From TrEMBL:
Record's subcellular location: Cytoplasm
Lineage start: Bacteria, Bacillati, Bacillota, Bacilli, Bacillales
Organism: Salipaludibacillus keqinensis
Amino-acid positions noted as binding Mn(2+) 2 in the UniProt annotation, renumbered to this chain: 11, 77, 99, 102
Protein name: HTH-type transcriptional regulator MntR
GO MF annotation terms: DNA binding; DNA-binding transcription factor activity; manganese ion binding; protein dimerization activity
Length: 142
């Protein structure tokens, strides 16, 4: 099982490959705002654990295992962002909130949040009802 730091790298590498067709050390470093030397160390670790294949000066590719985990990590991130929007979290804080909680939830909790998001998507009236409750509570608390 990858560590939270490894997950961040796998998620970003997966996104870069999906968007650009490749992921270079410099691209990963820019995206994660870390030094290229840190990326190289992590990429070597991910290679050792068979999440990707890395050849110095040639680049990297995700293994089937790495692609599967990367896709699931992107799904988790996107799902949590959507959940935050549904429950009315201010858009400016969503990314920080998701980054703060995504590594601390079990996959069972993620699956249940997925069920809840699906429920709200299939029942838009419930979202409207939730917004009314939030407004009422905001009015009371002011």
């Amino acid at each position: 099982m990858p560590t939270p730091s490894m997950e961040d790298y796998l998620e970003r590498i997966y996104i870069l490959i999906e968007e650009k067709g490749y992921a270079r050390v410099s691209d990963i470093a820019d995206a994660l705002e870390v030094h290229p030397s840190s990326v190289t160390k992590m990429v070597q670790k991910l290679d050792t654990q068979e999440y990707l294949v890395y050849e110095k000066y040639r680049g990297l590719i995700l293994t089937a295992k790495g692609k599967k985990i990367g896709k699931r990590l992107v799904y988790r991130h996107d799902l949590l962002e959507e959940f935050m929007r549904i429950i009315g979290v201010n858009e400016d804080g969503i990314y920080q909130d998701v980054e703060g909680i995504e590594h601390h939830l079990s996959w069972d909790a993620i699956d249940r949040i997925g069920d809840l998001v699906q429920y709200f998507e299939e029942n838009p009236k419930r979202v409207k009802d939730l917004k009314q409750v939030q407004k009422r509570n905001d009015d009371i608390n002011q």
